[in-house]
Request: fold
Amino acid sequence: MSNDFVNLLERLVNNGVNFVIVGGFAGIAHGCIYVTQDIDICCDFSPSNLLALQRAVSDLNPVHRMTPQRKKLELTEEGCAQLKNLYLDTEEGQLDCLSFLDGLGDYSQAKQESEVIEVEGTKMHVLSLNALVKTKRAMNRPRDKEAILQLEAIKELRRR
Reply:
């Protein structure tokens, strides 16, 4: 895990953001050997949690990655109600914040199907191996098919 990504995750934890690591980093946490360019999290999209997320990254010059103008992240309590996903570029890397995972559900379901890991002394939730396979199957993208092969192999090794 890159130091920038670790720093970004530690900032979220230290600011009390409720999230679960999903996607590529969840796969890496379970032993996959592919490369990912961002951190995907499923998080509580309540205004208080999104404002905590904004505080966590505010000094990293966060901008909305998917908007043509790459607008600066400036959340308000009222504006948070409009959001379903949040795709950010920061000085520490890309952070994709999802309110829902295909094949699994929202943040509360993701948290139920997560486990706690420790990264450089910081505890955080990561999607369980079985739940990660479910989401990868539901998305059914070419890169997810490769990840499923690795995840299934890891499951088999753990069974032995």
Observations:
- The chain has one domain: 3-155.
- The mean pLDDT is 93.
- The first strand starts at residue 19 and ends at 22.
- The radius of gyration is 15 Å.
